[in-house]
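During data preparation, a discrete fold description was generated, and the record follows.
___
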Amino acid sequence: MNKILLVDDDELMSRMYQRVFIIEGYNVEVASDGLTGYNKAKIFKPDLILLDVMMPVMNGLQALEKLKTDPETKDIPVMMLTNLANEPDADYSLKKGAIKYLVKSNYDPKGILTEIRAYLNNDQSAALPAQNTYVCLGSCQAVITAEQYKNGLTKCGAESCTMKGQPFVKGKKSDVTGKNEAALPQEA
């Protein structure tokens, strides 16, 4: 049975996800702040950590950095699961070792389960951020190439996008959606 550590200060969300994960057969522990999550990770030794960003005592970015610099916890995979569709936080998280940056509003519990299953079923390659693409964290989830980014296309311009005018973040579409962008049309 795979073990998941859910670190989130939103008690209602934590209980909902905990129930969903338990029903699906996962062993789940919950922590309500980054420091407690870090300490539980050392004892519980989860197969995966879901980590919120905005929390008391120690926020998720601080907890991620602590987890990834501690020899006991550095190899535990971490998915950021947050309400913040924030490019600097997403970029920082991926650079510090998070395998995904998931924006809660883009997923229902089934979508989060899909992400967890994909990773825990040895599909880690799909979870690693791409080094040659950038993605919009908004509703359009547009993907551009590193070349397009270097040539000045640095902000989303889609009229209907919830993040219009916001910078793209380095990664790939599956970092945001769980879908593989291999099927997307290539740059002309």
In short: Residues 129-178 form one domain. Confidence is low (pLDDT under 50) at residues 123-130, 176-188.
